[in-house]
Write a structure and sequence with these properties.
By secondary structure, the protein is an alpha+beta fold. Helix content is 38%, strand content 15%. The chain contains ten helices and ten strands. The longest helix is centred in the first third of the chain and has 24 residues, at 2-25. Bound molecules: zinc ion. Residues 162, 169, 220, 223 line the site of zinc ion.
Length: 298
């Protein structure tokens, strides 16, 4: 019996020692990254800011770009998205189908409960990737319809997030069959559910109400932008725009560097901490061949 107790105690000791050793191996860099969102995510391509002041090149195309299938669409045309954003979107659409009832606020301020049948809440993808050329046509057509007035509803070519392939316009059944999208979509249970849950799938509501000064685009309760889960959770919890987030992230980076922080070291630490495999990042530097340099972090 004594031997058995000794053996168990020895085993516990060994396991604990191994835990301590494993903990000890993961030493954070001396200069701490203080911002609540990991540096790795801030450096990722999904943190890209596109607006009238930050234009995309005419030649920019999402990679890899895939045709989104297996979900309901509010258009007869095929819709394309960047692969990771497409997968996240499908996960959100699928999660919606498990919603059997949802309480939402109506235009008159009343709380109502929407009950769904077996299929649950159904979302409809209206649009995703739009090329520079398509956006130029959309913009010109809109101006022609709108007495040549640019009222901020349609983005100028190069300033549309739709060119990134990581955002989507999403509607419900009712709005999917309407000729135009209108802001009162926000009073639907689908719009409110998406706003409440989009961050779980890495999306943000991109053009917030009363944030036109910051974004340059009027409130669009249907437009969701993929930024990855950590950035999305932060932005949606803070209720800020991607523009404001980008400023905060830049300030955090400036502060980190001024304290002597090492970007590669911090990112390597984050990878180890999350036990993620190494990932490559396209740097804002170009080699002699004109191709962007890639940094591989282990
Ligand atoms: Zn949109």
């Amino acid at each position: 019996m004594k031997k058995l107790v000794c053996a168990i105690l020895t085993m516990i000791f060994c396991v604990c020692s191994a835990c301590v050793l494993a903990e000890e191996q993961l030493v954070p860099p001396e200069v701490h990254w203080n911002f609540p969102v990991p540096l790795t995510d801030i450096q990722s391509k999904y943190a890209l800011l596109v607006n009238a002041d930050n234009l995309l090149e005419k030649s920019f195309e999402p990679d890899p770009l895939i045709k989104v299938t297996g979900i309901k669409r509010a258009t007869s045309a095929a819709v394309y998205l960047e692969e990771t954003a497409a997968e996240a979107l499908k996960a959100m659409f699928e999660a919606a189908t498990f919603v059997t009832e949802y309480s939402y606020v109506t235009e008159t301020g009343k709380t109502k409960v929407m009950e769904y049948d077996e299929g649950g809440m159904v979302l409809f993808l209206k649009s995703g990737y739009r090329s520079y050329g398509t956006q130029a046509t959309t913009y010109a057509n809109y101006l022609a319809r709108n007495n040549n007035v640019d009222d901020g509803y349609v983005a100028k070519p190069g300033s549309s997030e739709h060119q990134t392939g990581i955002c989507a316009d999403i509607l419900n059944d009712d709005y999917a069959s309407r000729p135009t999208m209108t802001q009162d979509f926000k009073w639907t249970p689908e719009a409110q559910w998406m706003k409440e849950n989009c961050a779980d799938y890495g999306f943000i509501l991109r053009f917030l109400e009363d944030a036109e000064k910051e974004t340059g685009i009027k409130f669009e309760p249907w437009h969701f932008r993929y930024v990855g889960k950590s950035i999305a959770s932060y932005i949606m919890a803070e209720g800020i725009t991607l523009e404001a987030f980008t400023v905060q992230a830049k300030e955090a980076m400036d502060d980190f560097l001024s304290r002597g922080g090492d970007v590669d070291e911090q990112m390597a630490y984050e990878y180890k901490k999350l036990n993620r495999p190494p990932e490559s990042y396209v740097l804002n530097e170009f080699g002699e061949d004109g191709d962007a340099e890639v940094s591989l972090v282990f």
